[in-house]
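Researcher: Go.
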Amino acid sequence: MDFELTGEQLEIQRMVRDFARNEVAPAQEQMDRDHEFPYAVWKKWSDLGMAGILISQEYGGSGLDSLTYILAMEEMGTVSQTFALIWQVHVMVANMYVHLGTPEQKNKWLPAFARGEKLGAFALTEPGAGSDAGGLKTRAERDAHGDWVINGSKIFISNAGTRISDGTVLMAATGETEAKRKAISCFIIPRDAPGYTLGQSFDKMAWHGMDNRELVFNDCRVPAENLLGKEGAGLRQALTGLNLGRIVFGTLGASLIQACLDEALAYAKDRRQFGKPLTDFQLTQAKLADMAAHAEGVRRFAHYVAWMHANGKDCHTEAAMLKLMGTRLAIEAAREAYQIHGGYGFMHEFRVNRLYREAQILAIGEGTNEIQQLLIARALGC
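Model: Structure:
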């Protein structure tokens, strides 16, 4: 098996690493202070072709594969989980248009997504429907003219409330299946759709700078052609798209472990106790060694699962395994790095404090870790 990266992939790694350190790192500090979306940095990132990384060149994108995307995500996530997740949601939504859109929908939306002029958002979660996606209550019904009328609300929706958010993909019930379960469909929601309003935003413990908010649909009307993909196939379509999201979250786990290692190692070399640096103590060495081993192991597994995805192989189980393992080990690394910092880890001025807070949400997004365990168990025949 060939583990070598191509010259193009190595160049993209280098470019993203430099951009993350020079542009995103200071923007992350600003986001932590003012909680504002980083419009200027997003524009520069988009100008590099990264907003359209998985969009074909036909529509103005870069036309790269999912492995190259994951390599770039790994570099970005080590510097800023927030910016990485803004990008991830956008790429996931654009990718849904790529695979589900009609020629007309692609021509209308993909060039703007590729240029980063419009920011993608995915509206699935509701106040009473998170892991139980089939329990959502938002409904879409046809009116006398065949257009769709949508009623309901969504919550914790990322990227939906910025001034460039548009073309949000909404999941809504459109009837029942033969098995008497809710038939769920995907819809394209323009920012100016009548009856669509932005609800409250949320004061989060991390991911400051990423917009997360409630969405309200009160007799919201969209034309018939705003159905994305097949009617009634929305849940299956969304779950297929979540595979790549789970690979991303596993990758972000590896990135966060690496960031924890970088911070903890630098601090432990400088911090002295009993006349010696912390790195001279075996218990500290053990914590650092575990972080290094876990970062490398999750990183390599992420590359493999991304390779499977890029080559069209079934990776449902592997994506679930990666998400579960990567995020669980990230939480452990954040806890250990926090412990090495001692009382300083409790202070917002130290980056490890943010890493500790960011780690917790990784076990929730893109399907909770408990859902990943159920998926893996099902693959085992349980």
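Model: Strands lie at 122-123, 139-142, 148-158, 168-176, 182-189, 196-201, 212-222, 227-228, 272-273, 276-277.
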